[in-house]
Amino acid sequence: MDNKLKLPTNRNFGYVFCIVFLLIAIWPILKQNDLRIWSLTISIIFFILGSFNSNLLLPLNKLWFKFGIMLGNFIAPIIMGIVFFLVVTPTGLIMKLLRKDLLKLKKNNSATYWIKKDNSNNSLKNQF
Predict the structure, then answer these.
(1) Which is nearest to 79 in space by CA: 91, 87, 69, 67?
(2) pTM value?
(3) How many other CB atoms are there within 10 angstroms of residue 57's CB atom?
């Protein structure tokens, strides 16, 4: 585990999973079905252990944290690749088709690349 990352407290871990299992328990009620007793029981156990900040939750907390890190390392590059190929690449292709050079990267035959600006209204007073 990376030393820069801090493990969440057992209390927060217990409360989060209490809420998750509570939602699983009451979800069938919305569809006019019976309450899931097994999920309600697990929710109560997580609430009790989380309330006392029990060390019994520490192995589960570490396991869940490592799973989150592993999932983040796997999913983040996939999402960034999707964003790149669905947003950045089409934007670049459209800009090439329209012959736009927003970054002024094309070579020109000028003596300088400096852009002349009109700074007549720039007094540097009240900058913010």
Answers:
(1) 87
(2) 0.61
(3) 21
CA angle 51, 62, 9 (to 5 degrees): 35
128 three-state secondary structure: coil
> Residue 46 CB: number of other CB atoms within 10 A?
23
Q: φ, ψ for residue 105 (rounded to 5)?
A: -90, -15
Q: Which residues contact 12 (CB under 8 A, 6 or more apart)?
A: 50
Calpha distance 99→65 (Å, rounded): 48
Q: pLDDT per residue over 13-67, tens digit each?
A: 999 999 999 999 999 998 888 999 999 999 999 999 999 878 899 999 999 999 9
Cα 128 from Cα 126, distance rounded (Å): 6
Q: Are 18 and 43 in contact (CB under 8 A)?
A: yes
